[in-house]
Amino acid sequence: MDYNFDELIPRRGTNSYKWDSAPGGDVIPMWVADMDFRTAPPVVDALRRRVEHGVFGYVKVPEAYYDAVAGWFGRRHVWRIEREWILYTSGVVPAVSVVVKALCEPGDKVILQTPVYNCFFSSVRNNGCEVLENPLMNNGGRYTMDYDDLERKAADPKARLLVLCNPHNPVGRVWTAEELERLNDICLRHGVRVLSDEIHCELVYQGHRYTPFAAVSDACLGNAIVANSPSKSFNTAGLQIANIISSDAETRARIDRAININEVCDVNPFGVEGLMAAYNEGEGWLDALCDYLWGNYTELCRFFADRLPRLRVTPLEGTYLVWVDCRSLGMTSDELTDRLAAEARVMVNSGTMYGSPGEGFIRINIACPRSRMMEGLGRIASVLG
């Protein structure tokens, strides 16, 4: 089936956070991590059927939901998930918060591999815990883990948890099984649990393969708590559905208690229906989406090489978020994003949102029709070129 990812779908005036937060009607938003594409047709059809029923009371999550989750990861990623391992909640950010609450006490330390998704910081601090940074190493534009530093940070007697981003937002790495196993070996030596945010797991490109952290080995499975959702892959973040997966019954009981303490135990019927449709019927659409996004990235790289050669585009292995090194311009990230918003009328993310190692970088969302992306890049070049 052919899917039209080139269609320009108006989103301004729909109460879109991405579009309607922009000042004025001429701004191109290339910041918030949602896509400007309609979701997979089977998801739309499932939601339409639910709307036509007309009654939107509290939902009882059916067994078919768990079958859909387990079936998807079994088929697509060779990861066997037992039904009892799955706890549902309203989103991956709430999932991160409840796992921190469940496994840490106020004053404990949580390891983050910076630069990293900004909500990790607030999830840690809002639970009275301290962020312990294990900065990634930038090796000529490709990021790797600093295992020596991780060994030191994990040895801190107050370190209880590491929050992993797999694939990584914003640097675009898809961690290999070998990298994940080495990380887990260090964490196990020091009694540090691993919470792996795998929300971008389906958005992986040529020559790379997503490995669920819990599927690397039995040791990883026993030490893992995995948070995932179809929301990034299928552009359904507003449906508010996610899963926390743990093979350990005691850990699940503690997390389940934290879910109820945080009052994120109820989900909406649209999220349930959307997930089942995406996982049961959406694979063809998703594969076509990834091909289109890779085409966008390829065009972006050509554009930067031609028009903005002073800026370095980080290799993109996964996600639709491009991490760009702008340090050659001699401006801070905030100065740069402010200038692009004011002069180019393009909104991108400042690298400092993701921790101090992000200074001098910007993050660009390329999940939009190619013509819109090229217009946005052209505006950026008119100011920075």
From TrEMBL:
| Entries under Pfam families matching the protein | Aminotran_1_2
Query: What EC number(s) has UniProt assigned to this enzyme?
Result: 4.4.1.13
Domain called Aminotransferase class I/classII large: residue spans: 34-377
- Organism name: Marseilla massiliensis
The organism's superkingdom is given as Bacteria
Database matches in Gene3D superfamilies: Aspartate Aminotransferase, domain 1 (3.90.1150.10), Type I PLP-dependent aspartate aminotransferase-like (Major domain) (3.40.640.10)
- InterPro entries per UniProt: Aminotransferase_I/II_large, C-S_lyase_PatB-like, Class-II_PLP-Dep_Aminotrans, PyrdxlP-dep_Trfase, PyrdxlP-dep_Trfase_major, PyrdxlP-dep_Trfase_small
GO MF terms listed in the record are: cysteine-S-conjugate beta-lyase activity; pyridoxal phosphate binding; transaminase activity
UniProt KW keywords:
Aminotransferase, Lyase, Pyridoxal phosphate, Transferase
Name of this chain's protein:
cysteine-S-conjugate beta-lyase
So which cofactors does this thing need?
pyridoxal 5'-phosphate
